[in-house]
């Protein structure tokens, strides 16, 4: 039943790539309606470039209301910052064209640097601040007295589009991020149960690997939705903390299930009952309709299984030749049960939020990863590309090259931090090229002959509704969004449309050339290697673990889980399309979260006065050796004695003292050793 559900899920997902859902149609019709309302309002206000109001609606359009508000909010901030920068730069340097374009290029580089260090939607706002200054500043070239009027007009057009998009997304059949989070979390729980059922029954490895990747991707989406939901409604703030914790618990449960699958032991009387109970529970959870409507019974069962797994098996019960191994697997099973229980409680907390009282907290001894080398490369590339094309424009005095300069600035800044900027930019180019003939037919042939807003709606709606449906589909969102934006840019709708193909084709050519030049820059100038960025994140994860081993302060478990999720979230887009190599990195990153939790368990045990002093010394020595291994061993080098020491300490502890606390220490050592053996290169220092 479980595997049938998994197969049906993937078949449904594939079908969903081509068949628009009801929510897709709502999104498409709502977006097109908001765009038309924005255009009408721009006509009524007699704005100089009314197409910007309608374009903004499609730029910020997202299926979830919180995403629209978040993107619109940061687009507004970025536009205001870019407008102020354009006014300041043009006022100070406007008399010297070479100095002006140089300062604008430097400004774009600075904003690209900041954008590369941030996450969406903040990153989008920072990038927008850079190229907005270019969009406003270049039209005022040679006429600095117009810069304030241009900045005000651009801000007014964009604010109008943001307001129309935000109001319609919130009031017309809204899809709220808070509801989407609950729905996505339910699906994650059922997928986790399906994965665990397969893992506990020895399911197909390839199928489990595919579901493993999907679960990690879904946790990334949950994290993004959390930020959007907080902007969507202040009332969601009390629920943001449960989302953050629940994501960490999802990863912990996933890692525990994977470990039990990878290190399945020969059958013995101590393991069989717990494993069977877990397998039955997750199988029922995955197969039972409406299983998550009431989590109380599942939580009660998980509590009982966790308590049973943490009990020391009777010495008379057959445990095979490796008692510590049995205790280790029982510990992992208990951790899985506890993590799944916390995930279910997190779901309940989202559905029925309660006001949290303030509590004292201290900062963990961990740091957030910022990819400064990658951000510096992106900044240099965007600034240099913009400056070189601007120099060509100033030298040749080709009037249409101003559009090329703007597009180079936009593309080289906006897509700089993507894992594969060439592929994303090429999709943008294809959407732009596809928009050209449609814009020509509507703007140069149809509307001059049949003017008026009614005819405009008749010609444009049949084009934009399918486009918006494509924007709702993750498979086509890049090309469809580029098509919508550039269709409106090429069309340049005004109340009086005229046939004038010369400027139309000249402006269109400058846009296409600008995108191609930006793609050339991505290929030739400091080309990005996603694996370099991935290796820097992996290195940061190893340094996190080393800090856990050595730092005087011990962070809370939830703080480490949150940080580990953040690292995995950053890794996912960099390696998810890299085949087995990417799977090994993702698997290692989840295993690193498990290792970190076991380190915290060892640190906690070493502070327990009931633990013999010699064991405390052994734990400290092991953690120092583990830190050295994490920081200094390179891939391919033979492993140091850390793994062997862990197993030796675990065996010695079990022989000397068979109490519960001591056996748990031994189990933690064995779990760390197993994770490092499973992913030896992940836990080694890269040579780069």
Automatic annotation (TrEMBL):
Cellular compartments per GO CC: plasma membrane
Domain of life, source organism: Bacteria
Protein name: FUSC family protein
Organism phylogeny: Bacteria, Pseudomonadati, Pseudomonadota, Alphaproteobacteria, Hyphomicrobiales
Membrane-protein topology: Multi-pass membrane protein
GO molecular function, one term: transmembrane transporter activity
Places the protein is found: Cell membrane
Organism from which the protein derives: Mesorhizobium jarvisii
Pfam families, sorted: FUSC
């Amino acid at each position: 039943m479980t595997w049938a559900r998994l197969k049906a899920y993937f078949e449904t997902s594939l079908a969903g790539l081509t068949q628009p859902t009801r929510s897709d149609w709502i999104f498409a019709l709502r977006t097109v309606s908001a765009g038309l309302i924005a255009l009408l309002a721009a006509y009524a206000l007699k704005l100089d470039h009314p197409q910007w109001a309608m374009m903004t609606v499609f730029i910020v359009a997202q299926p979830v209301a919180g995403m629209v508000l978040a993107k619109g909010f940061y687009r507004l901030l970025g536009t205001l910052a870019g407008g102020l920068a354009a006014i300041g730069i043009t006022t100070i340097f406007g008399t010297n064209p070479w100095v002006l374009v140089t300062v604008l290029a430097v400004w774009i580089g600075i904003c690209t640097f900041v954008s590369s260090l941030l996450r969406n939607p903040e990153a989008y706002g920072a990038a927008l601040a850079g190229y907005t200054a270019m969009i406003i500043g270049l039209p005022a070239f040679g006429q600095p007295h117009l810069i304030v009027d241009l900045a005000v007009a651009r801000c007014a057009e964009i604010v109008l589009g943001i307001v129309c998009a935000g109001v319609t997304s919130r009031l017309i059949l809204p899809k709220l991020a808070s509801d989407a989070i609950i729905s996505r979390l339910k699906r994650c729980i059922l997928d986790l149960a399906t994965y665990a059922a397969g893992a506990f029954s020895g399911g197909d490895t390839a199928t489990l690997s595919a579901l493993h990747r999907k679960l990690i991707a879904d946790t990334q989406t949950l994290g993004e939705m959390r930020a959007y939901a907080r902007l969507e409604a202040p009332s969601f703030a009390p629920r943001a903390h449960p989302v953050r914790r629940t994501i960490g618990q999802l990863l912990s449960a996933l890692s525990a299930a994977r470990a039990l699958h990878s290190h399945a032991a020969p059958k013995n009387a101590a393991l069989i009952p717990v494993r069977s109970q877990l397998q039955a529970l997750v199988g029922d959870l995955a197969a039972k309709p409406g299983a998550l409507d009431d989590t109380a019974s599942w939580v009660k069962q998980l509590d009982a299984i966790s308590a049973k797994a943490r009990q020391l098996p009777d010495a008379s019960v057959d445990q095979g030749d490796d008692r510590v191994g049995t205790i280790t697997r029982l510990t992992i099973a208990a951790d899985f049960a506890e993590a799944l229980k916390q995930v279910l409680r997190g779901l309940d907390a989202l559905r029925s939020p309660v006001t949290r009282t303030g509590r004292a907290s201290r900062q963990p001894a961990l740091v957030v990863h910022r990819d400064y080398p990658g951000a510096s490369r992106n900044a240099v590339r965007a600034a240099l590309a913009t400056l070189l094309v601007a120099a060509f424009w100033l030298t040749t005095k080709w009037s249409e090259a101003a559009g090329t300069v703007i597009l180079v600035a936009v593309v080289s800044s906006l897509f700089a931090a993507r894992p594969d900027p060439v592929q994303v930019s090429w999709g943008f180019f294809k959407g732009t090229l596809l928009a050209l003939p449609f814009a020509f037919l509507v703007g140069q042939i149809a509307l001059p002959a049949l003017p008026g807003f009614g005819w405009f709606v008749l010609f444009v709606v049949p084009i934009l509704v399918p486009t918006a449906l494509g924007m709702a589909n993750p498979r086509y969102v890049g090309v469809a969004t580029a098509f919508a934006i550039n269709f409106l840019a090429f069309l340049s709708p005004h109340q009086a449309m005229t046939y004038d193909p010369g400027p139309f084709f000249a402006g269109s050519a400058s846009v296409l050339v600008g995108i191609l030049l930006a793609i050339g820059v991505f290929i030739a100038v400091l080309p990005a290697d996603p694996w370099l960025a991935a290796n820097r994140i992996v290195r940061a994860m190893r340094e996190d673990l080393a800090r856990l081993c050595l730092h005087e302060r011990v962070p809370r478990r939830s703080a480490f889980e949150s940080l580990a999720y953040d690292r995995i979230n950053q890794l996912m887009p960099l390696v998810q399309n890299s085949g087995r190599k990417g799977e090994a990195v993702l698997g290692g990153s989840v295993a690193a979260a498990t290792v970190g939790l076991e380190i915290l368990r060892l640190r906690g045990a070493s502070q327990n006065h009931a633990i013999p002093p010699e064991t405390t010394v052994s734990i400290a020595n092991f953690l120092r050796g583990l830190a050295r291994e994490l920081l200094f061993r390179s891939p391919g080098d033979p492993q140091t004695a850390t793994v062997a020491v862990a197993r030796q300490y675990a065996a010695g502890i079990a022989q000397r003292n068979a109490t519960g606390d001591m056996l748990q220490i031994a189990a933690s050592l064995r779990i760390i050793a197993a994770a490092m053996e499973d992913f030896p290169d992940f836990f080694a220092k890269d040579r780069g």
